[in-house]
Amino acid sequence: MRRAGRYCEHVSAAEEAPQTPDETAAIPAEAAVRELRFAYVAGVTPGKWIRRWEERMPDVPLHSFMSDDGTQLSVLRDGSADLSFVRLPVEREGLNVIPLYEEQPVVVAPKGHEISVFEEVALADLDEESFLDVAELGGPEAALQVVASGAGLAILPMSVARHLNVKDTVARKLTGAPTTQIALAWLNDAGRATTREAAADAADKPTEEVIEEFIGIVRGRTAQSSRQPSAKVEPPKKEPKPDRRGTGVKKPKVAQRYAPNPDKGRGKGSRKKGKR
Questions:
Q1: Which of the chain's termini has less CB crowding within 10 Å, N or C?
Q2: What is the number of domains present in the chain?
Q3: How far is CA 106 from CA 57, 154, 164, 211, in A?
Q4: What is the mean pLDDT of each run of 10 residues along the chain (276 residues)?
Q5: How many CA atoms lie less than 13 Å away from 75 in the CB half-sphere?
Q6: What proportions of the chain, in percent to the nearest 5, are helix, strand and coil?
Q7: What is the CATH number of the domain that holds 218?
Q8: Which domain does 138 fall in, by range?
Q9: Which pLDDT score is estimated for 236?
Q10: Residue 31 and residue 22: Cα distance in Å, rounded?
Q11: Which of 141, 184, 137 is nearest to 166 (CA)?
Q12: CA 120 to CA 261: how far, in whole Å?
C-alpha cells in the first residue's frame, strides 16, 4: 500500500520472521533495567553523592529531584522515589531512617535590621522581636517574602536561607536555638506492604544491594569497604595463557662433541705449573 508518498509493503503477522529463543529472552532483560530515584529537600546538596555513584555504579541510572517539606515522605509512599533526604522530625512508621548531619540555624530579618551589624545573634537577645510561623505561611519561600516586607523575623536552617537567597533580607547565625537534622529515609518491609509499590512489578524496583550501595556512598564508605555490596563481587578470573610451545615432538639433545674443560671458570694462574 502507498502512504504519504512512500510505498509500504503490508506483511501479515503470520509472514513475519519468528523470533529466535535468544532474541525473545533478550527483550525482558533490556526492559528490566533498574534505576535508582531519590528526592531531597531544599538545602541538601547531593552533587558529591551523584558523582561518586556515577563512578562506582555506571550501569545503574540515578535520578534525583527536589521535594518540599510537605511531600518529603509522600514521594516514598506513592513510589515517586526509592529514597528521600528528609528534614527531621518525621513520622517514622513504615520507614528506615538514618540521621546524617545537623543544620546550623539562622535568623532572617529585613534588610537594614540591627542584627546585620553582628556575625551571630543569641536567641535570648531577640525576646522583643516578632517571629513568623514558617509552616503556617506555606513554607520557607513564602515566609521569607513576608520577612522582606518587614512583618517579622524567621528562623531557618542556614542551607535553606542560602538556597532561597531572597532579596531585601539578611541572615545571621543564631545561637541558643534548636537545630534541625537531615536524614536519609526509605520504606521498610512494612511500609512497602501498604503502598502502591506492593502492586508494582518487582523487576522495576532497585534491589536491596543497590539501595545499600547508595547508603554507603552517602555515609562516606570507600569503594573498597567490606560493607559495600560492590566490593563483595569477585572479579572475573583471568583465562590461562595459551601454551606457545606447541604440541610437537621435542628435539633430542645433541651429544657434546668435546670433553668439558676442567679449567673453565677458574681464575688466571690457577693451574699448577711444573717442569716439563
A1: C
A2: 2
A3: 37, 8, 13, 33
A4: 46 48 41 78 95 93 93 94 96 95 97 95 95 94 96 96 95 96 94 66 70 92 65 61 62 62 60 55
A5: 23
A6: 30, 20, 50
A7: 3.40.190.10
A8: 105-178
A9: 61
A10: 15
A11: 141
A12: 95
